[in-house]
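[scheduler] slot 2 assigned
[scheduler] job type: sequence-to-structure, two independent chains
[scheduler] chain ordering preserved from manifest
[runner] begin chain α
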Amino acid sequence: MFKSILGRLFWTYATILALVFTSLSVSVGIFVDRFVTSEHIDDIRRVSDTIEYWTGVMQIETDNLRVKTAHRQILKSWADFLGSDIVVTNTNGEVIASTCSITTVPDELVNKVVNGETITSHTNFNGAYDKKVQVVGIPMEYQGGIVGAMYFNTARGNMRKTALELFYLFLMSSMFSIFVSALLVYMQSKRISKPIGAINKTARDIASGNYDGRVAVTSTDEIGQLASSFNFMADSIEALEETRGEFISDVAHELRTPMTSISGFIEGIMDGTIPADKQNDYLKIVLDESKRLTKMVNDMLEMSKMSSSEYKLDVTQFDLNELTRICIINLGSRIDEKNLEPEVDFESDTLEVLGDKDAIQRVVINLVDNAVKFSYPNTKISIKTWTERGRAHFCVGNFGDGIKGSDLSNIFNRFYKTDKSRVNDKSGAGLGLSFVKNIMTLHKQSVWVESVDTKEGSSVKYTKFTFTLELA
C-alpha cells in the first residue's frame, strides 16, 4: 500500500484530513458548548426582567389571587421555554415562588446574589438534584434596592442536547466534505502517479531495447514538463543508438576495405599470383593502406579524447594569418599536383586570435586539404581571413562538384561522405570534417559550409567552409 506513490500520496492526504477534522471537531465542540451556554444565559437575563416585574406586582398585591395565579403561570411558561427550574426568594433566602419542589437555597448562593452579584455556578442545590446543575442567580431590584433573587437551575443534559444537535449537523456536513475531499485526493493522487508510472514503464522498455516508447503529455505542470523532458531524452537516446549503430557499421566498412586489400595482396605475393617484378608496387599499396588504417585509428582515438570531459584545450594567443601561410606551404605539393592557383586575401598582415594553436592548425589543414581534394584541376582555391562582429573569420573555398543540399546538414557527421566522394576518393575515412566540428565546438565557436552554383546551367559549384575564433 505504501510502496506506491499513489498509496503514499493518498494516505498522506487522508492522514492530514483526519488530523484537521479531529482538531476542528474538538474546537467546534468546545465552541458549540460555550455558545449554547452563553445563549442560554442571555435568554435567562432577558426573561429575568419579566419575572422581576411580576414578582414585584405579586408582593404589592399580596391578597390578589389572580395576580398570584398569573405569576405562577408566567414562571411555568418561562421554565418550559428555558428548560430550567425557576426559584424566586426574598432577601432572607426564603422561597416565595418555584416551579419545582425546592424549598431552600444554599446560603453561599443567597449571600452573593442579595449583595447584587449575578452568579453562575454548578451545584446540586442542597441535594435537590442527583447531579450538579448549572445555576444562574440574578438579584431582583426595586427602586434601587435588592428585594430578592431569582435562580434558574438547568440540567447540563438539556444544554448538551442542544449542543449535540448542532454538533451532529457539523459532523454530517464534515463527513460529506471528507468523503468529497478523499475522492478528490484519490483522483489527484492518481493523476500525479499515473504519468510517473507511465514514465517508469517506458523507461523499462527503453532499457530493454525498445526505443519507440514515448509518454503522453497531458498537462503543462511539473509532471507534464517531466514527461516532455523524458520524451526528449528518449528521442536523444534513440538518435544516439542509431548513430552508434551507423558508427559501428561505418567503422566496420572502413576497416574491412583496406584489410581486405592488404590480406589479398599479401596472399597474392605469398602464393605467387603476383609476379615478382610487381610485388614492390603491391607492397607499396599495402603500406599506404596500413598508413591509412593507422591514421583513421589515430583520428578516432583523438575524437574519443575530445568527447571526454577531461579533454582540455591549450589556449594561447597566436597569429592566424601566419598559421594559414604555414599550412599552405605544407600542402604545396598537393596544390601543385592539380595545378591549382591559391588566392589568399588577408584583411590585415596579422590577425591575433585565442585558441589551441595545434588544434586550429589541424582544422586549417583539414579544410584546405579538403578544398584541394575536391577542386577541379586548373582552378582556384580562395583563402580569406577577416574580422567581423568582434570575431576573427577564416574561409576557404574551391570550385568543384560541390555538396548537395541534402548533404549539407550531415557533412560534419563521422564517416559521412557524399556519393561523389565515395566514388572518386578512397584516401579519407570521413572523419576530417567531424574532427573540425569537434574542435570548433570545444572552442565554443561556429563552423559552417555553403555550396552554391557558379552560374545558371553550369555543373560547377563554389563550396566554402568558414569558422570563427575569438580575437586576442
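[runner] end chain α
[runner] begin chain β
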Amino acid sequence: MYARSLGHIVALFTALAVLVGAFGATPRALADGAEITYQGVLGNSGADGEALVSYSSPLPTGAGVAVDELGFLWATGGPGRINRYALDGRLVGSYALEKKGVVPKRITKAGDKIVVFAGTEIFSRSTGFETSELFVPVNVTAGGISSSSWQGKVAFWVAKPKVQGQEQEFVLSMLDAATGSTVVLSEQVPGIHNVELADDGAVIVEYRGSASKYLQDGTHVTSWSRKIPSGTGLIRSGDHYYCFTHSSTIIRLSADLTPSPGVVLGGASGSVIAKMPVDADIRQSTGLVHVRGNLYAVAGYGGAVMLLTWSDEAAQFTIQRRIGGLPSCSGLYVSPEGWVVANAGAWPWGARPDSPLDFGTPIDPDGMRSPVMVRGTVLAPSFRYNGRPNFLSFSFTRLPDLDEIKLAPFSKKMVGAAAVTLRKQQDWVLTAESDGKATAYRVSGNGTTMEASPVIMEATAPTTQLTSIASIDGTMVYAAVDGHIVEFAPGEGTDGAPGAYTEKARWNSWADAGAESLGGTVYISADRNPDRLWISDTEKNRVLCLAMPERRLVAMYKGSTVNPAGTLERPTVISGTGERVAVYDSGRQRIVKLHLASDKPLAKK
C-alpha cells in the first residue's frame, strides 16, 4: 500500500513539474500540438535496462563464439572483456580479462571452461555465473588457439625464434583447460596460420591455403594434405568444417575437407549472392558453433553474433537473429517508406531490437556516412572493407549497388553529406569533412559519379569539429559546427564548376528559446515534409525539431516519461522523414526510433 501511494505521489509531482515547465519561464517543448514519442530500439538485442548489450572501446573485432552446457553464448565484449548472451539476445553477463585492454581473438569452450586467446596470452574461467570471476591467464604464450576442443583440451601454437637464413618454424602443443598443463606435439611445424581439432583429436594445421594433419603423439601424417578455400580460418563444428570469406560467405566442408555442399550463406559470386542472404555483420566471420538441433551461431568481424537455422532441403543457412549491440554508427537515413538505413544495410521500421539487417552490403560494419535521397534512390557515401570510397545506392527491392569513387575520392575524415542542386538544376551530393573541407559529386540515379569538384565553404570562424551537414531545399546548406548551426548559401560557379558556399548565419539557439542554447556537440538532419531541421544535442541528451527557416521549436524530446527505456545517452547521428525519426544513442550503443505526433496534418510537398 505504501509503495503504491508513494508511486501516485511521485506521478503527481511529475505531472505538476511538466505543467510548471510548460507555463513557466522555460521555453515550450511543444508547438502546434506536436509531441515526440519513443517507439523502440534497433541494433541492440538487449534493447534497454540490464539486458542492454554494450562493448568496451575501442571498437570490438570478432573473436568467434562459444556455447556452454546451458546454451548461453560467449563472444567478445570488446578489448579486455567477454560477453555472455541468452539465445533471445539478452546480455546475461559481462566478464573482464585480468589483463586490461587486450583484444580477444578467439573463444573456445573446453570442458567446463571458456578459453580465450587475447593479445599473445591464453585466459580461462569457469562457465559459472559469478560476476566477480575474471578470466585469468594460464601462463601460456601463444600465436593462436583452436576454436574447437577435444577431451577438455585446446590446440595452440607459438612461433619459434627466427634463425637468419632459415624458414620460420612453429611449436604445436595441447593445453588442458582444467589443469593448465601443456604437452608439445611437434617443435618443427614449417608454417601455421590457424589450427583446428578434429573429432578424433587430430590437429589440422592451416597454412597458405593448405591443410595438414598432426596426431596426438606428434606424428605428421604426410600422406594427408588438402587444399582449402582462402578466408579467415578453418573452424570445426560437429561433423563439418567451415571457412569464411568476404560478402558474408560461409563455406561448409566435410570431415575430409571437401565441399559439403560448399557455399551455404552469402556468396563470393554474383550468382550465389542473388540466391542467399548477405549480411555485413558476418563479414570475415571468426567462429561458428552448433547450438542445438538445426540452430547455429556465427560471430562476425564487428562483434555481433548471428543465430542461423540450417535447412537440409535447401542445404543452406538462414539468418534468424542478430545478438549484440551497435558499438558505432556514423550515418543514418529514414526513407519515406520507413526503412532505416544504417551501417551496412537497412532495417524496416517495424523491426525488433534483435532483427538482422536487410540488404546487406560488402562494406565495413561502420563504413557508411550520412545517406541522402537523390531522384528517389538513397545514396550513401561509404567505405568498403579495403578502405575504398563508394556511393552505395538503395532501392529496397534488391541488393544495393556499389559504385567506386575514382574522381576525387573522399577521405576517412568525411563525416556528412547533403543532396544539393547546382548548375542548371543538376543533382549533386555535397560531402564535408570534419575540418570543413567539402567536395561536390554530380551523380546519376544509381550512384555513378559523373563529375567531382572541390567546394569552398567560406565560414566566419575556424572550424574545429564539423559533425554533419544537411539541406532542405537543395540550395541552402546547414552545417553542425562546434555546437552551432551554420547556414551557407551557394555562390555562382565559374568555368562550369560549383561555386563557393558563403556563411549567412550562425546560431546555437532557436526562436523564443530565452537563455537556453544547444550543447557543445550537435548533429543535424533535414526534412522537406514540411521544412524541418532535426537536431541531436549530444551533451544535453535530447532531440529537437525546428520549423525552418524561422527556427521555431516544433517539439523537443528529452526521454520518455512513460517508458524509461526511451532515455537517451549522448545521441549523435540523426535522421527524420515525415513523422519517423531515428537517432543513434551512442552511450547505449543502439538506434532509438521516435515518432512525431501532431494534431495538425503534415504538409505535403
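[runner] end chain β
[qc] chain β: Confidence is low (pLDDT under 50) at residues 1-31, 269-274, 601-605.
[scheduler] slot 2 released
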